[in-house]
Predict the structure.
Amino acid sequence: MFESVARGDLPGRLAVMDAVILSVGTELVTGQCLDTNAAWISSRLTEYGVRVVRHVTVGDELKRLSMSIRHAIKAGNLVVMTGGLGPTEDDLTRHAVAAALGVKLEKSAEATKQVTAFFVQWGRRMSDTNLRQALVPQGCAVIANPRGSAPGILWESDGTMLVAMPGVPAEMKAMFESVILPQLDTRGRAIVSQRVQCFGISESKVGEILSDMMGRERNPLVGTTASDGVISIRVIASGSTRETASQRLEADLSEIERRIGDPVFGRGDRSLQESVASLLQRTGQTVATAESCTGGLIAKRLTDVPGSSAYFPRGFVTYGNDSKMEELGVRGDLIEKNGAVSESVARAMARGCRVRAKSDFAIAVTGIAGPGGGCPPDKPVGLVYVALSWADDCDVRRYQMGEHLTRGEVRDRAAKHALNLLRLVLLESLRHQGK
């Protein structure tokens, strides 16, 4: 006998301690698709005070999948599965759940009704293979799917819950929010998290500065992740209430920001350009760009931020030497003597840009993004000059990104270094003004 689970239908809420997320699909283990579901589910569970102890990804193999389900049930009292509930032969989640629980699959009248109703609603012909989605392991409840044809599966026994949902993100999220979260009892336990974002400092240096805060038994937990030059310091705090956990979190975040200092450019998903935009809005100043190797990437990032017209008047993409001379007034003999990728040309580009744009600041970038064009050892691939011009000053920085980086990575790092240089100058200006 089967029942349909809707919001709050279970007689008692599950007191969750540890959760395991199990993602199903050969396309995931082979790298053909990125598993975004696990990250989203982890984030939502953490917000609800659930500790996620394991992420597991398994291909469409019945034996391995059923074994993984049994292991997951032993590792946590909440198992959240996504994927493998479609109508084709390689959709094996329902079969694997039945095998793991030692029960048979049976056609559910409730699931059949839900699958049929979906096709009627959308005026589509239902294939006989879609009725595979009405098969449910004995003893499991059917979870309604408001956005697709595949019902979910829910099993609960002795304080342990297993949930199997479709892999389609929109379907999974709707089912998770409307049915699963209301079943969880996380009273007496709260977990909150946040990230501090840094640029212009190495992960090893961050580790040295925060070594005493990174113990594995400590609350909050502090760790680092490096990605594309940005160092993210993640902080996860727990407590008996959300207020207690949040106080612990904020205390650590503030201490981390104090210790790291200027390399910190924001929290959470804040980007370098958002940080720069905020500072420009505070100072009421403007910035223009003159780009060679980055091809307009800096201007693009600055204008990604809403309200950028207030501080970004214009940008120049001067990829060739002629355009540098014509658009920015860079002298030809300067390019001939030192090369387009040089400190002197970067300085001339920035100064020419600021004059022509009539802006308070001007950023200029020239470099060798690769994969060709480098002339080692003097000018290898990855060499970039970033210049920042303002008032009567101009700061030029030389960066060697490394020949191991791809063209896209060199351009990305160059844009970040340029934005960060402007950010640091704006910060210093605000300090001098006592703001």
